[in-house]
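Re: [ENG-882] Designed sequences occasionally contain unexpected residues at chain ends

Forwarding the minimal case from QA. C-alpha coordinates:
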Protein backbone atom coordinates (compact mmCIF):
# COMPACT_ATOMS: atom_id res chain seq x y z
CA UNK A 1 0.00 0.00 0.00
CA UNK A 2 1.01 3.60 -0.38
CA UNK A 3 2.73 5.43 -3.16
CA UNK A 4 6.18 5.61 -4.64
CA UNK A 5 7.69 9.02 -3.95
CA UNK A 6 10.52 10.46 -6.01
CA UNK A 7 12.16 13.68 -4.88
CA UNK A 8 14.13 15.47 -7.60
CA UNK A 9 16.70 17.96 -6.29
CA UNK A 10 20.08 19.56 -6.83
CA UNK A 11 20.91 19.38 -3.14
CA UNK A 12 19.42 18.39 0.17
CA UNK A 13 20.27 20.35 3.28
CA UNK A 14 18.26 19.03 6.19
CA UNK A 15 18.67 17.94 9.78
CA UNK A 16 15.71 15.60 9.43
CA UNK A 17 15.99 11.95 8.53
CA UNK A 18 14.53 11.05 5.15
CA UNK A 19 12.28 8.05 4.95
CA UNK A 20 14.12 5.31 3.03
CA UNK A 21 11.01 4.73 0.93
CA UNK A 22 11.54 8.15 -0.69
CA UNK A 23 13.73 7.95 -3.78
CA UNK A 24 16.13 10.89 -4.03
CA UNK A 25 17.14 11.67 -7.60
CA UNK A 26 19.71 14.26 -8.55
CA UNK A 27 18.76 16.77 -11.23
CA UNK A 28 21.42 16.13 -13.90
CA UNK A 29 22.19 19.81 -14.52
CA UNK A 30 23.45 21.67 -11.42
CA UNK A 31 22.48 25.28 -10.58
CA UNK A 32 19.16 27.10 -10.65
CA UNK A 33 19.32 27.40 -14.44
CA UNK A 34 19.85 23.64 -14.67
CA UNK A 35 16.81 23.01 -12.48
CA UNK A 36 14.69 25.28 -14.68
CA UNK A 37 15.91 23.62 -17.89
CA UNK A 38 15.40 20.14 -16.48
CA UNK A 39 11.89 20.96 -15.25
CA UNK A 40 10.97 22.62 -18.55
CA UNK A 41 12.14 19.73 -20.75
CA UNK A 42 11.25 16.71 -18.60
CA UNK A 43 8.13 14.62 -19.14
CA UNK A 44 7.88 13.13 -15.66
CA UNK A 45 6.69 9.52 -15.52
CA UNK A 46 4.43 10.02 -12.50
CA UNK A 47 0.76 10.12 -11.71
CA UNK A 48 1.05 13.37 -9.76
CA UNK A 49 3.79 16.00 -9.94
CA UNK A 50 3.85 18.31 -6.92
CA UNK A 51 5.88 21.53 -7.06
CA UNK A 52 6.15 24.18 -4.37
CA UNK A 53 7.33 27.19 -6.38
CA UNK A 54 5.02 28.84 -8.88
CA UNK A 55 7.90 29.32 -11.34
CA UNK A 56 8.55 25.57 -11.32
CA UNK A 57 4.83 24.94 -11.86
CA UNK A 58 4.98 27.29 -14.83
CA UNK A 59 7.99 25.52 -16.37
CA UNK A 60 6.77 22.00 -15.55
CA UNK A 61 3.36 22.68 -17.12
CA UNK A 62 4.73 22.38 -20.67
CA UNK A 63 4.82 18.56 -20.61
CA UNK A 64 3.10 17.75 -17.30
CA UNK A 65 0.04 20.00 -17.09
CA UNK A 66 -2.56 17.27 -16.52
CA UNK A 67 -0.72 15.76 -13.55
CA UNK A 68 0.61 18.95 -11.97
CA UNK A 69 -0.30 20.19 -8.47
CA UNK A 70 1.07 23.47 -7.14
CA UNK A 71 1.54 23.41 -3.34
CA UNK A 72 1.73 27.09 -2.39
CA UNK A 73 3.60 27.48 0.88
CA UNK A 74 4.37 31.16 0.48
CA UNK A 75 3.82 34.08 -1.85
CA UNK A 76 6.87 33.70 -4.09
CA UNK A 77 6.80 37.35 -5.23
CA UNK A 78 7.63 38.45 -1.68
CA UNK A 79 10.93 36.53 -1.73
CA UNK A 80 12.52 38.79 -4.33
CA UNK A 81 13.51 42.47 -4.25
CA UNK A 82 14.39 42.56 -7.95
CA UNK A 83 11.52 44.23 -9.86
CA UNK A 84 12.01 42.24 -13.07
CA UNK A 85 12.13 38.89 -11.25
CA UNK A 86 9.10 39.80 -9.10
CA UNK A 87 7.19 40.82 -12.25
CA UNK A 88 8.05 37.50 -13.92
CA UNK A 89 6.82 35.61 -10.86
CA UNK A 90 3.53 37.57 -10.90
CA UNK A 91 3.20 36.57 -14.56
CA UNK A 92 3.76 32.92 -13.56
CA UNK A 93 0.99 33.19 -10.96
CA UNK A 94 -1.44 34.47 -13.58
CA UNK A 95 -0.50 31.73 -16.05
CA UNK A 96 -0.48 28.88 -13.52
CA UNK A 97 -3.51 29.80 -11.40
CA UNK A 98 -5.82 31.35 -13.98
CA UNK A 99 -4.80 30.61 -17.57
CA UNK A 100 -3.55 27.03 -17.14
CA UNK A 101 -5.93 26.28 -14.22
CA UNK A 102 -3.31 24.20 -12.38
CA UNK A 103 -4.86 22.73 -9.19
CA UNK A 104 -3.41 24.65 -6.25
CA UNK A 105 -3.32 24.11 -2.51
CA UNK A 106 -2.54 27.09 -0.27
CA UNK A 107 -1.33 26.26 3.25
CA UNK A 108 -2.74 29.35 4.97
CA UNK A 109 -5.88 31.48 4.70
CA UNK A 110 -3.92 34.70 4.18
CA UNK A 111 -1.96 33.11 1.36
CA UNK A 112 -5.18 31.83 -0.23
CA UNK A 113 -6.62 35.36 -0.12
CA UNK A 114 -3.51 36.71 -1.87
CA UNK A 115 -3.68 34.01 -4.53
CA UNK A 116 -7.38 34.76 -5.15
CA UNK A 117 -6.30 38.09 -6.68
CA UNK A 118 -5.10 36.03 -9.66
CA UNK A 119 -8.60 34.56 -10.13
CA UNK A 120 -7.51 30.94 -9.77
CA UNK A 121 -9.58 28.25 -11.43
CA UNK A 122 -8.79 25.55 -8.80
CA UNK A 123 -7.67 26.76 -5.37
CA UNK A 124 -8.11 24.93 -2.07
CA UNK A 125 -6.89 26.06 1.31
CA UNK A 126 -5.57 23.28 3.55
CA UNK A 127 -3.86 24.90 6.52
CA UNK A 128 -0.55 23.84 7.95
CA UNK A 129 -1.72 22.94 11.39
CA UNK A 130 -0.42 22.64 14.89
CA UNK A 131 -1.74 19.65 16.75
CA UNK A 132 -3.40 20.86 19.93
CA UNK A 133 -2.83 17.38 21.36
CA UNK A 134 0.93 17.99 21.28
CA UNK A 135 1.16 21.78 21.62
CA UNK A 136 -0.91 23.62 24.20
CA UNK A 137 -0.58 26.25 26.90
CA UNK A 138 0.80 24.55 29.99
CA UNK A 139 0.76 26.60 33.19
CA UNK A 140 2.99 24.09 35.00
CA UNK A 141 5.58 23.51 32.28
CA UNK A 142 9.21 23.12 33.44
CA UNK A 143 10.16 26.26 31.49
CA UNK A 144 7.56 28.36 33.30
CA UNK A 145 8.72 27.02 36.69
CA UNK A 146 12.46 27.63 36.17
CA UNK A 147 12.69 30.88 34.25
CA UNK A 148 13.47 34.15 35.97
CA UNK A 149 12.21 36.56 33.29
CA UNK A 150 8.57 37.45 32.74
CA UNK A 151 8.39 36.03 29.23
CA UNK A 152 10.27 33.85 26.76
CA UNK A 153 10.42 34.33 22.99
CA UNK A 154 11.31 31.36 20.85
CA UNK A 155 11.95 31.84 17.14
CA UNK A 156 12.24 29.06 14.60
CA UNK A 157 13.76 30.73 11.55
CA UNK A 158 16.42 30.27 8.98
CA UNK A 159 18.83 32.97 7.90
CA UNK A 160 16.96 34.02 4.77
CA UNK A 161 15.61 37.34 3.49
CA UNK A 162 12.28 35.73 2.66
CA UNK A 163 11.77 34.48 6.21
CA UNK A 164 12.06 37.95 7.75
CA UNK A 165 14.93 37.23 10.13
CA UNK A 166 16.04 40.85 9.69
CA UNK A 167 12.60 42.09 10.79
CA UNK A 168 12.54 39.66 13.72
CA UNK A 169 16.01 40.77 14.89
CA UNK A 170 15.02 44.44 14.76
CA UNK A 171 11.77 43.72 16.61
CA UNK A 172 13.59 41.80 19.35
CA UNK A 173 16.08 44.66 19.83
CA UNK A 174 13.21 47.14 20.12
CA UNK A 175 11.37 44.85 22.53
CA UNK A 176 14.49 44.55 24.68
CA UNK A 177 14.75 48.36 24.86
CA UNK A 178 11.12 48.65 25.88
CA UNK A 179 11.41 45.89 28.51
CA UNK A 180 14.50 47.32 30.25
Amino acid sequence: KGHDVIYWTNEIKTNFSINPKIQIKKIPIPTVVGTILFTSLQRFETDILIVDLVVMAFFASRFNRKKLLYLAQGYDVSYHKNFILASFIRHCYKRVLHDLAIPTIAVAQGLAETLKTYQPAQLQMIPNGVSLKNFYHDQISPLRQTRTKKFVILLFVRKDFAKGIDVAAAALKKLAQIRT
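QA comment: On inspection the terminal residues look reasonable. The chain is about 35% helix and 15% strand. Proposing we downgrade this to a documentation issue.
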